[in-house]
Amino acid sequence: MKKLLTSLLVIIMLTIAANAQQASSSDDSGSFNKWQARFRVISVIPSPGDNLDGAEVNISTSVVPELDFTYFLSENWALELILGTTKHDVDVDDELDLGHVWLLPPTLNLQYHFTGGDAKPYLGAGINYTIFYGIDEGDVVDMDYDNAVGFSMQAGLDYNLNDKWFLNLDIKKLLLKTDVTVDAGEAIIPVEVDINPLIIGVGVGMKF
Q: How many structural domains compose the chain?
């Protein structure tokens, strides 16, 4: 899976590089759509690692819908607000069930869009605030997740079908961790959990 994801990232970066020179030599001073919206289906793939005294904390992958709105400050620069929510199962070493938790991670990215042609790659970076809710404790007495601020990196490609509709491929990496308090009954265990999800999405967009 990691090799596939790395390959997708390389393909997008090569596409961006191939279009950047063409975009830089093209100066289209005409009008452009200031707003666009996308509907994507995304796969959220956490990378938690070892967080609990050498034990491996597992966080499940989730496939969910996502909605975003983009406002263009100019033909190239834009702000994108990403909205979606995901549910993840959590366990330790595939043995201790820590139930599940819902994440609501609104993310605001500043993007640079390359122009020229129907294929329009973009790069983005921004900030994320993740809200944890709908917590199920699993085998322990209680679980408490602190809401957390994270950072986002993004690469994507819009492909115009016509003047209004386009297809989208988008890859984001969130740098995100949270402090978790586990009440195991006999002890209260504080844990800093790295989530750092890779988010891959495909969808359709509309300009207006």
A: 1
Name the phi and psi angles at 58, rounded to 5: -100, 130
CB under 8 Å to 24, separation ≥6 — which residues? none
**What would the two tokens of residue 81 be?**
């607000």
Burial class (CB in 10 A: 0-12, 13-18, 19+), 86: buried
Task: Count the Cβ atoms, other than its own, within 10 Å of residue 17.
Answer: 11
Q: What distances in angstroms separate CA 166 from CA 32, 66, 120, 159, one per listed residue?
A: 14, 16, 10, 5
> Which residues constitute the domain of residue 134?
2-23+35-207
- Phi first, then psi: what are they for 21, rounded to 5°? -65, -40
pLDDT in tens, 6-42: 555 555 555 545 544 444 444 444 567 899 999 999 9
CATH number, residue 122: 2.40.160.20
